[in-house]
Design a protein that fits this description.
The chain is α/β, with parallel strands linked by helices. It contains 12 helices and 17 strands. The protein has 2 domains: 111 residues; 270 residues, TIM Barrel (Alpha-Beta Barrel), CATH 3.20.20.70. It starts with 15 loop residues before the first strand and ends in an 8-residue tail after the last strand. Bound molecules: S-adenosylmethionine (SAM) and iron/sulfur cluster.
């Protein structure tokens, strides 16, 4: 497998300012696991410790590059309208060429013995072609990583299972391209080692470990514990480990409601002892009728029970609501019942409520189901207004202090 060449990283410095002809002040911020360069605070770009381009802000546009070499652009216009999309191959090439040309220019003004030099040389060892090779390596290791909770975008993802064991919610197309499969312990260990190798020294940039795909915690307890043991052998989780200069704060994972009910309090307690910190579960709606229209497994009442069991074991939850679900006809019931259901969960500090604005396409199953029931969809602006109502409802009620945040599936990149 191809691997980026690592280099000796200099210890972090306070940010430095270089005075560069034809540019002006260039600020260089060398952190333990990334390097950020900022030209006159007008534009900036960052790289990981292997020298791979990570983020940029050029001409008022934000760019974020994922591990499989996708680049997401996001632009907020003066009238606050947002554009976000993945760049085409040609656009990626132009951006990467531009960023690398800037670094090459800067390199000429930095002495070879300067501790910035190895960073710049590592960055310049990449080009569009080599970065695109990361795409192939990524796909040799992973099935597509379709979605993560927003606080886990900067995690190390390992796929203990592939796909979703239910895969039938009308609105969700994330895992339709694959059959649910649990990895054997042997292939899981191999996968974990490949992931480690692929990330290289840049793994230190990551904060946590995410056990994918859609409901990996459904894995029978014994196999799951064996898998968590592998993770502890391979990564420093929750505590430092010889040979690593970073620590991952814990293990995080999705679970669906029915999957959650299959585990006992004792199972969850055991998972907590192995470092499981938070479980993300899609309630989507507290309204029974809307819930059935979404074809979610289980029910809102079962979701409350599952969440209470998980929390009793000392594991936090992330509960996801779907703004816009049930369209105009069920809007009021959806909001009221969702807030009521959340209240019954006894959420607290360390828990998160995510609100995800529903994204549909005319041909999807959700839209067909709504058409069959003559339910009109909300306009995009009404969906966003419902996001605010749901977020405001959680904030006002406090429910013991969970965080509440937007979950925007169109802004996901790993
Ligand atoms: C992997 S799933 C959640 C975990 C688990 N599989 C479950 O269903 O409980 C991730 C979340 O993405 C969101 N999602 C899926 N499809 C969506 C869509 N079309 N529009 C907006 N959000 C969507 C849902 O809120 C869902 O809970
Ligand atoms: S929402 Fe969750 S349970 Fe439903 S299909 Fe998507 S991943 Fe599976």
């Amino acid at each position: 497998m191809h691997r980026a060449a690592t280099f000796q990283r200099p210890v972090p410095n306070p940010p430095r300012t270089l005075s560069i002809p034809a540019i002006g002040d260039v600020y260089v911020n060398t952190q333990k696991f990334f390097l950020m360069i900022s030209e006159e605070l007008r534009c900036n770009y960052s790289f990981d410790t292997e020298g791979r381009f990570m983020t940029g802000f050029l001409d008022g546009v934000n760019y974020r590059r994922g591990l499989k070499n996708d680049i997401l652009m996001k632009h907020v216009a003066a009238n606050t309208s947002k554009t976000r999309r993945m760049l085409s191959a040609a656009e990626k090439q132009r951006l990467v060429d531009d960023v690398l040309a800037r670094v090459r220019y800067l390199r000429d003004f930095v002495a070879s013995e300067d501790q910035l030099s190895p960073w710049l040389d590592a960055i310049l060892s990449w080009n569009t072609h080599r970065l695109q090779g990361e795409h192939d390596t990524f796909h040799a290791i992973y099935r597509p990583i379709s979605i993560l909770p927003p606080d886990q975008y900067l995690s190390v993802v390992v796929q203990a299972a592939e796909g979703c064991s239910w895969n039938k919610c009308t609105f969700c197309t994330f895992y339709r391209d694959r059959k649910f499969r649990i990895k054997s312990l042997h292939s899981f260990r191999e996968h974990v080692q490949q992931v480690k190798h692929f990330l290289g020294s840049a793994a230190g940039l990551r904060k946590s470990l995410f056990l994918a795909d859609a409901n990996a915690l459904i894995i029978p307890q014994k196999r799951l514990i064996d898998m968590l043991r592998v993770l502890h052998e391979e990564f420093p989780i929750g505590q430092s480990k010889p040979g690593f200069d970073y620590v991952l704060k814990g293990i995080y994972s999705f679970l669906d409601i029915v999957g959650a009910e299959k585990k006992t309090l004792a199972d969850y307690q055991e998972l907590r002892e192995y470092g499981l910190k938070r479980i993300y579960i899609g309630l989507e709606t507290g309204d029974n009728t809307v819930f059935r229209l979404l074809n979610k497994p289980g029910s809102p009442a079962e979701c409350v029970e599952a969440v209470r069991t998980i929390k009793a074991a000392g594991i936090n939850v992330g509960v996801i609501l779907l703004a816009g679900a049930g369209g105009r006809q069920y809007a009021q019931a959806h909001v009221q019942q969702s807030l009521r259901t959340l209240k019954a969960m006894d959420l607290g500090v360390g828990d998160i409520v995510y609100v995800s604005p529903l994204v549909t396409i005319p041909t999807d199953e959700y839209t067909r189901t709504m058409d069959t029931h003559s339910v009109a969809a909300l306009h995009a602006s009404e969906v966003m207004a419902q996001v605010d109502v749901l977020k405001g409802g959680v904030t006002r009620a406090r429910y013991g202090g969970p965080k509440v945040a937007l979950y925007h599936i169109e802004e996901f990149i790993y």
